[in-house]
Amino acid sequence: MIGARPWAAACFLLPALVVLGALVAYPIGWTVVRSLFGADGFARFVGPGNYVNVFTDHQTLTALENNAIWVVVAPTLATALGLIFAVLTERIRWGTAFKLVVFMPMAISMLAAGIIFRLVYDQDPAKGVANAVVVGVHDTFFKASAYPGAHPRAGSALAASDDGGYTTTAAVSPGTPAMLPLVGIAPTTLHGAQQAAVPAHCPSGAVCGTVWLDFKPGGGGTPGKIEPGMKALSGMRIQAVRDGHTVATATSAKDGTFVLPASSVAGGPVRLSLPESNFTAQYGGVNWLGPTLVTWSIIGSYIWMWTGFAMVLIAAGLAGVPRELLEAARVDGASEWQVFRKITVPLLAPVLVVVLVTLIINVLKVFDLVYVIAPGPTQQDANVLALQLYLSSFGGGNDQGVGSALGVVLLLLVLPAMFFNIRRFRKERSR
The ABC transmembrane type-1 domain covers which part of the protein (predicted)? Predict the structure, then answer.
């Protein structure tokens, strides 16, 4: 009936065409026209000048480079993880619950995800989960320094050594108490530290001494002298060095005292060294949002969000794979890896291509995550085309001509992937 009445079909299509024209066709046409004029509006025609600026500007070239990384890495990893999750969850009882957890990030906006991962990637391990994990693993295998930032007073018996530690300026003879005072430590950090003490008894021929914080609460006191209220520095490593070689090592006790046995220091005076390991700064983790890693960190947050999308679509395609083929391959002796590689993946190829192309279109337009996660100093290092479009048009550049040119470039980059997807859909429908 409608086929015989073209005007009836046109009436049904007219509302959709009006909305499509107002929301898609008109903005595209206006953007193309605007891209041919300068920053001051339609008063100055510049022709292709804005496009020349786009491909010669350093910021835009950085954005193009980052977009290329996004297109190659993000869709590939998200699709691969989605495939792995979809296949593995078929074999476990709680597969549905796992899929729900993986898909849940899709329920939040890009803005919310950006705020979450800005906190996850915080440099302070007390705030950022990523660095809390990294620091925890690091400190498990590499012992943290006892007193980072500690150092001797100027003119004291200790002087800086080439290895980053401190060594006594004069040799110490056995039987003579070695006083090793340090400063540069906040007394409030020495919770539970005992009063520093002079060694009560030093075995004959041994080298003894004390390491302590040379600071008296309330001020006053004599530098280099142990007085009431001065805290001991326990756990400090002390080495006896003779002729450039370490001959003995000791660790200070709870009251700051230490003993280097006579059997090790026999042979004359030695110099006492406090090695660098006592003073190195605490490991602060990885600078996730620094210039080197900021793009990769943001890609990680994108994968966290969109892996669930890929998994659900691939799982739907996997449900349509004939089980007889898989069972026949297993009966014929194929391993699970062979079944996956030679049967499952080829049969899922159409779904995988659709998911991959859809994600490519999506990452070409990524803006929210980069704008929210990347801090100001490194935002340029994480720049992408959509963000550069905003910055050029409204974020300080105030040049909507260049911004419109960027919009046209972005449209041209998206069109091939979009046409490819449309062709795939039409082929699938014609079967």
Answer: 64-421
Sign of the torsion formed by the C-alpha atoms of 375, 377, 382 and 385 = positive
pLDDT tens per residue across span 249-281 = 999 999 999 998 888 887 778 889 998 888 877
- The per-residue pLDDT for range 174-214, each reduced to its tens digit, is 877 888 899 888 877 787 888 888 888 888 888 898 998 98
* Residue 395 CB-half CA count within 13 A: 14
Its pTM stands at 0.77
Cβ 389 vs Cβ 63: under 8 Å: no
In the chain, pLDDT over 70 holds for what percent of residues? 98
